[in-house]
């Protein structure tokens, strides 16, 4: 007798025998919008104190124009001793809205951020004096790299835009609206309201002034400020000595390169060096374009690692350069001996990984034309492969010391040294993995090329127990525990670990003598009922073994499941973050969807050539759905619908044009015309083009990234035609719910086009447009309503009016209102 059969039988018996027995309340969208969170943690330089942040319920945020950062308005900062002393609330006399920065080099100060009188502002907290001083400056939060950073001497560097709230990531959601409204107001008052964009030779320019950033240095002790640099600053990095600051700036416009990748830069990046004492600056090669993903100073000696190419050449033709700030000497380190880019990824420069091992540069690279890549030490002779004995080297490093590296690979921790073979530091019977918590505040460069300077590595065993590994061996910090886990911060003797089980998130100080909870988020989730997740193994259309995942609605007998909703997204592997109850997922959340009474099948499916997508996607969904029916007897696979978000929304519409098997479809933020998706500007960019000039982002998506159409529309007209939903609208017969937003990267017109096409043919469709939202919904009311829209649409298509006498409440179902349509 299967476990699922027993589950269904037991549920039916309980409902019949004990009709008044209370069932655990299901996890719904109402719980989702009330989710709390824990944030970053930072241990002081002396290892004695930890600062950490917590965030209140999402729906208690004071504003939602900040997108995913809206809950920053509920933030609180706490301090606790690493020896287990009591925690205390920092800035208790201020309202919520505090965000944690970093410790100063001395450990006396903390950078903090908050909404001071509604304005995003940086402050310096003096731990010894228990005093906060606001700087009066609104710092940049750039995706490219510029962020607030400490330098030697307890001096804080702030990139700011004069005269306005400057954080691009915040302006993208809220302040772009203000730009638009300001232009409308100018028109209303009879004043000029125009933006211009011109292209010549593939270089786009505007009549508006290029955005200017000032790099301001704040003395923490006195609060005195000084402007070090001014210009189109993209990124900053101070040297370890504090004598120099590397400044990366936007240079001349850059024509598109072939092939066009999604994150292709539309300008060159120029590097200059500021001498802090005098303010003097030097340029790193007037004709050298510097990659935005690497600015790494040596721990001693004031030498900088960058990747640079000469103007007019490809990134592959560049080199890893060592620039000596004292002498001005610049040396290329690879000179064609190694390939640091490898196979073409999303953005070529994102593949570059390099840092310093003491005075020795190290790089993750491979021999030209080879698939394998290793960490190499670049000493005076030939490069030395440090990870050669490892079966699967990774670009991650757990620790960087003066004479060795620590990396986690092949289930073990390895010490890498130029003069010795790779040394395994964990015993053969201990399998470990690295689980560092992502720094959600770090820009792209720091996420890719920031390495912990220490001589120990934090890891977890398969049971979730934490270990600290060094050259002296492996030492257990905490015992195995169920649930998900991440290393947030720590020392060589104690750990700050985030653990999540049943949606309850705990931030704990863990050490050999036990664990102390610092903060708990979503404690009430322990009493909720979440969907039961069932693995569905099957073969995809290529005959490859894959696993889809089925989410069975909680507290629902098999006979009462309304139907099966197949969630689609090409190349999806249904990874754990998609369905972790403690993850705030503002997009398509299968746990929430299951709470509406439907089984949700997250289908593992490969992508397909553009000309064959409709039939290929439909075939793969058939395989997953049939396998789910075989795995779970009684599952109502005859009552199925297909739903998708983003590229999944596109896929859902393509499937609708290829099969009549499913009763209804939902496309959320799905592009219907890939030529429109290729070239239409994003709403948040139209009024502030000079801020980013990223309009080729969508063209790169269509040509070489997810769209994979192979070129622009005029060069691949037949491919675009075959891959366009709009061109197949005559083949769509079953009801389609279209969900769109006016500030989405997927143009709102995509939803309007397919709606108009179905309306023209007299076919059933509904268009729900959420105003002010982007690719996901962040307003709590909009988050709740989108699931109401989806559930109501599915009910109309899949459910007839029935009342199950075996159900104590009698589950009323709405009558399906869609007439059956003939095959197209």
- Based on the structure given, which CATH architecture of the domain at 530-673 and 724-798 is correct? 3-Layer(aba) Sandwich
Main pleated sheet: 8 strands, mixed
Q: Provide mean pLDDT, rounded.
A: 89
Number of strands: 49
Please report the distance between the alpha carbons of the first and last residues: 44 Å
Question: In which range does the helix fraction lie?
Answer: 10-25%
Based on CA atoms alone, the radius of gyration comes out at 28 Å
CATH superfamily of the domain at 530-673 and 724-798: Alpha/Beta hydrolase fold, catalytic domain
Fill in the CATH topology of the domain at 530-673 and 724-798.
Rossmann fold
The spatial strand order of the largest sheet comes to 42-43-45-44-46-47-48-49
Q: What is the count of helical runs?
A: 12
What structural class is derived from the secondary structure elements?
Answer: alpha+beta
Taken from the alpha-carbon principal axes, the silhouette is globular
Into which percentage range does the β-strand content fall?
25-35%
Assign the CATH class of the domain at 530-673 and 724-798.
Alpha Beta
Structural topology:
Elements: H1 3-17, E1 25-26, H2 29-32, E2 37-43, E3 49-55, E4 76-81, E5 88-89, E6 98-103, E7 109-116, E8 119-126, E9 131-134, E10 149-151, E11 155-160, H3 168-188, E12 198-200, E13 203-205, E14 213-219, E15 225-231, E16 233-238, E17 244-253, E18 267-275, E19 281-283, E20 288-290, E21 296-297, E22 303-310, E23 319-324, E24 330-332, E25 354-357, E26 360-365, E27 374-377, E28 384-385, E29 399-400, E30 405-409, E31 412-417, E32 420-424, E33 432-433, H4 444-448, E34 456-461, E35 466-470, E36 473-476, E37 484-490, E38 494-501, E39 504-511, E40 514-521, E41 528-529, E42 532-539, E43 545-552, E44 564-567, H5 590-594, E45 599-602, H6 613-631, E46 640-645, H7 647-656, E47 664-668, H8 674-679, H9 696-703, H10 717-723, E48 736-741, H11 748-760, E49 765-770, H12 780-798
Parallel strand pairs: 1-41, 44-45, 44-46, 46-47, 47-48, 48-49
Antiparallel strand pairs: 2-3, 3-4, 4-5, 6-7, 7-8, 8-9, 10-11, 11-14, 12-13, 14-15, 16-17, 17-18, 18-19, 20-22, 21-22, 22-23, 23-24, 25-26, 26-27, 27-28, 29-30, 30-31, 31-32, 33-34, 34-35, 35-36, 37-38, 38-39, 39-40, 42-43, 43-45
Helix pairs in contact: 6-7
């Amino acid at each position: 007798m299967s476990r699922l059969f027993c589950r269904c039988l037991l549920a039916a018996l309980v409902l019949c025998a004990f009709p008044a027995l209370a069932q655990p309340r299901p996890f719904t969208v109402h719980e989702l919008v009330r989710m709390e969170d824990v944030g970053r943690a930072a241990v002081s330089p002396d290892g004695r104190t930890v600062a950490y942040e917590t965030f209140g319920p999402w729906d208690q945020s004071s504003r939602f124009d900040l997108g995913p950062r809206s809950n920053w308005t509920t933030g609180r900062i706490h301090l606790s001793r690493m020896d287990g002393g009591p925690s205390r609330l920092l800035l208790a006399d201020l309202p919520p809205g505090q965000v944690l920065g970093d410790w100063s080099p001395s450990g006396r100060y903390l950078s903090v951020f908050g909404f001071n009188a509604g304005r995003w502002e940086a402050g310096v907290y003096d731990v010894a004096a228990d005093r906060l001083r606001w700087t009066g400056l609104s710092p940049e939060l750039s995706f490219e790299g510029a962020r607030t950073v400490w330098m030697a001497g307890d001096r804080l560097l702030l990139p700011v835009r004069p005269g306005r709230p400057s954080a691009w990531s915040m302006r993208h959601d809220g302040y772009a609206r203000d730009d638009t409204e300001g232009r409308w107001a100018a028109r209303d008052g009879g004043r000029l309201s125009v933006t211009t964009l011109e292209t010549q030779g593939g270089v786009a320019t505007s009549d508006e002034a290029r955005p200017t950033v000032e790099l301001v240095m704040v003395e923490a002790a006195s609060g005195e400020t000084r402007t070090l640099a001014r210009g189109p600053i993209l990124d900053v990095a101070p040297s370890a000595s504090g004598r120099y600051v590397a400044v990366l700036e936007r240079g001349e416009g850059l024509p598109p390169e072939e092939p066009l990748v999604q994150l292709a830069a539309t300008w060159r990046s120029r590097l200059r060096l500021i001498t802090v004492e005098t303010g003097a600056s030097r340029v790193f090669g007037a004709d050298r374009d510097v990659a935005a993903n690497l600015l790494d100073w040596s721990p001693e000696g004031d030498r900088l690692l960058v990747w640079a190419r000469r103007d007019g050449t490809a990134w592959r033709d560049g080199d890893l350069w060592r620039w000596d700030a004292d002498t001005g000497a610049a040396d290329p380190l690879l000179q064609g001996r190694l390939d640091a880019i490898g196979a073409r990824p999303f953005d070529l420069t994102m593949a570059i990984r390099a840092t310093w091992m003491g005075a020795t540069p190290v790089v993750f690279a491979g021999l030209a034309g080879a698939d394998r890549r290793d960490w190499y030490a670049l000493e005076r002779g030939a490069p030395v492969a440090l990870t050669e004995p490892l079966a699967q080297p990774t670009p991650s490093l757990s620790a960087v010391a003066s004479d060795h590296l620590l990396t986690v690979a092949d289930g073990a921790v390895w010490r890498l040294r130029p003069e010795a073979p790779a040394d395994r530091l964990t015993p053969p019977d201990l399998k470990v993995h690295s689980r560092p918590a992502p720094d959600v505040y770090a820009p792209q460069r720091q996420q890719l090329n920031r390495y912990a300077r220490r001589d120990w590595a934090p890891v977890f065993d398969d049971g979730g127990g934490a270990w600290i590994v060094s050259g002296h061996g492996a030492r257990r910090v905490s015992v195995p525990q169920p649930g998900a886990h991440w290393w947030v911060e720590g020392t060589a003797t104690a750990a700050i670990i985030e653990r999540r089980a049943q949606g309850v998130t705990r931030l704990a100080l863990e050490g050999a003598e036990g664990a102390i909870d610092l903060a708990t988020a979503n404690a009430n989730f322990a009493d909720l009922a979440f969907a039961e997740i069932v693995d569905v193994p099957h073969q995809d259309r290529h005959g490859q073994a894959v696993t889809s995942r089925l989410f069975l609605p909680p507290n629902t007998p098999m006979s009462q499941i309304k139907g099966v909703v197949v969630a689609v997204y090409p190349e999806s592997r249904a990874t754990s973050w998609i369905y972790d109850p403690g993850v705030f997922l503002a997009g398509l959340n299968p746990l929430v969807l299951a709470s509406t009474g439907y089984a949700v099948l997250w289908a593992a499916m490969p992508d397909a050539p553009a000309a064959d997508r409709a039939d290929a996607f439909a075939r793969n969904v058939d395989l997953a759905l049939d396998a789910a029916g075989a795995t779970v007897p009684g599952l109502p696979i005859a009552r199925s619908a297909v739903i998708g978000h983003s590229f999944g929304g596109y896929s859902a519409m393509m499937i609708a044009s290829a099969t009549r098997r499913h009763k209804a479809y939902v496309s959320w933020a799905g592009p219907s015309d890939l030529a429109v998706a290729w070239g239409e500007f994003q709403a948040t960019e139209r009024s502030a083009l000079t801020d980013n000039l990223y309009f080729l982002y969508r063209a790169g998506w269509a040509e070489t990234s997810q769209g994979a159409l192979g070129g622009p529309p005029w060069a691949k007209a037949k491919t675009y035609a075959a891959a366009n939903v709009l061109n197949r609208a005559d083949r769509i017969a079953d009801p389609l719910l279209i969900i769109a937003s006016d500030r989405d990267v997927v143009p709102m017109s995509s939803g309007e086009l397919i709606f108009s096409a179905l309306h023209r043919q007299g076919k059933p469709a509904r268009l729900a447009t959420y105003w002010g939202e982007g690719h996901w919904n962040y307003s709590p009311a909009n988050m709740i309503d989108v699931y109401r829209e989806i559930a109501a649409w599915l009910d109309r298509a899949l459910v007839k009016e029935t009342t199950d006498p075996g159900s104590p409440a009698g589950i009323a179902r709405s009558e399906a209102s869609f007439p059956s349509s003939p095959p197209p």
